[in-house]
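Budget justification aside, the reviewers requested a transparent look at the raw inputs and outputs of the sequence design task funded under Objective 1. We therefore reproduce one unedited record. The lines immediately below are the structure tokens for a 201-residue chain.
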């Protein structure tokens, strides 16, 4: 779902000197906000495009498949992809940047809220993103296994598919809920500590 290296590069692109004040500091924080928003928009568009492809592909599979259980699995996957599109469109980003005349601390708090929003979104990725499609894949796999068993061609190779997509989904979960969240939490600590310093000055 995410490209954490891109997000990390955005944060590190312009290191903040805590001694800087005024318009220069405000400009740097605004650039960080704009860069982060741009990265999130690109991620959301890529996810929506991928989900459209998945939905169309599995809708076609559901149309041509003869096995009822496999067809059900394909329908669940296609519907899950449409759900992901809605969820990302509805919750994928947090609107509301501070007014241009706000203080640097206000800009920092706005950036912190954006980080917090993405952390909440990614913390639940296993429920709204992975689980619906995974259930559809399991149903489809069960239908395929039943078909192979019925035709007497069931073998150990039928386990390869479930093992592969389970590993892929586990990797996506780790990338989002462990790797990326940890980085966002570090950025959140940096920006909130900076906002506290600004408030004390």
């Amino acid at each position: 779902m995410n490209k954490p290296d891109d997000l990390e590069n955005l944060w590190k692109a312009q290191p903040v000197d805590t001694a800087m004040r005024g318009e220069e500091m405000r400009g740097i924080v605004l650039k960080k906000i704009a860069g982060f928003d741009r990265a999130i928009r690109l991620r959301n568009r890529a996810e929506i495009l991928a989900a459209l492809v998945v939905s169309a592909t599995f809708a076609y599979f559901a149309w041509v498949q003869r096995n009822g259980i496999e067809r059900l699995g394909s329908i669940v996957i296609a519907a899950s992809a449409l759900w992901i599109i809605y969820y990302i469109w509805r919750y994928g980003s947090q609107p509301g940047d501070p007014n241009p005349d706000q203080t640097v601390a206000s800009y920092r708090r706005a950036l912190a809220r954006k980080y917090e929003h993405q952390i909440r979104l990614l913390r639940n990725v296993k429920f709204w993103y992975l689980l619906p499609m995974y259930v559809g894949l399991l149903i489809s796999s069960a239908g395929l296994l039943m078909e192979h068993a019925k035709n007497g061609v069931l073998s150990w190779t039928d386990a390869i598919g479930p093992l592969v997509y389970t590993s892929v989904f586990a990797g996506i979960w780790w990338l989002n809920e462990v790797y990326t969240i940890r980085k966002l939490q570090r950025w959140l600590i940096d920006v909130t500590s900076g906002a506290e310093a600004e408030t004390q000055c």
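Residues 4-200 form one domain. Helices lie at 4-12, 22-64, 68-91, 104-123, 125-151, 160-200. Computational costs for records of this kind are itemized in the attached budget.
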